[in-house]
Amino acid sequence: MLVFSDLHRDEELAEQLVERSREVDVVVGAGDYATMRRGLDDIIATLSAIDAPTVLVPGNAETDTELWQACAGWRSAQVLHGQAARLDGADIFGLGGAVPPTPFPWSYDLSEEATAAKLESCPPGAVLVVHSPPKGYLDEAHGRHLGSRAVLAAIESKRPALVVCGHIHQCWGREAAIGTTPVVNVGPEGRIFEV
Predict the structure, then answer these.
(1) 3-state SS, residue 85
(2) pLDDT band at 88, cuts 50/70/90?
(3) Are 175 and 183 in contact (CB under 8 A)?
(4) What is the distance between the alpha carbons of residues 44 and 46, in angstroms, rounded to a whole number?
(5) For the segment 1-35, what is each residue's pLDDT rounded down to a tens digit?
């Protein structure tokens, strides 16, 4: 499984992800393909050369509706926002947006309460793909923990096989564990995981 987040319209990295996707069974994107709600169609057009089954969740730089529309012609991709899919024998649950809400007027945000309600349907043991990291893990920027309490509670109760997140750029490439669950704030260069 090739996982990535926070491309923010970087065409060069997108092309590299397309190349690397030929080596994997599944591709997962954890949000922020656009930048401040701009450039989504162009970056998705580049990524749509990926033939492997692909799951994408919205970040806070694009809405779920915008992402669904941009991916309409990409046959191997599906957008998950509060839903699960089964790909290559693995359950994957996706939830996008910034949680808790950011101070940015352009940001696609969710409240902790809405997030908790959407995460209730996450299958136990699934791969959990969220844009926002869990509170206290891979979420520190400028001396503050900016992650989600609802995401943390879902990880503690659902015990996912893997959690993929992004959003907090200062933590790209870092890993943590919550109980036995590995959590990775993956970043735009992407990583390959066996699940």
Answers:
(1) strand
(2) confident
(3) yes
(4) 5
(5) 999 999 999 999 999 999 999 999 999 999 999 99
Residue 12 contacts by C-beta under 8 Å, 6 or more apart in sequence? none
Write out the two tokens for 28.
Answer: 């997962």
Q: Residue 145's domain is classified under what CATH number? A: 3.60.21.10
Q: Residue 13: left if φ>0, alpha if ψ -120 to 50, beta else—which one?
A: alpha
Q: Which domain holds residue 179?
A: 2-192
Look at residue 16 in the predicted model and tell me its pLDDT. 98
Neighbours of 104 (CB within 10 A): 12
Total structural domains in the chain?
A: 1
Give the chain's mean pLDDT: 97
What are 42's two structure tokens? 């162009």
Burial of residue 89 (number of CB atoms within 10 Å: 0-12, 13-18, 19+): exposed
Residue range 124-147, pLDDT digits in tens: 999 999 999 999 999 999 999 999
Indicate whether 195 pLDDT > 90: no
> Measured in Å, how far apart are the chain's first and last C-alpha atoms?
7
Helix (H), strand (E) at residue 156: helix 149-158
Q: What is the pLDDT of residue 6?
A: 98
Whole-angstrom CA distances from 167 to 47, 48, 107, 173 are 19, 22, 12, 12
With beta carbons less than 8 A apart as the criterion, state whether 17 and 27 touch.
Answer: yes
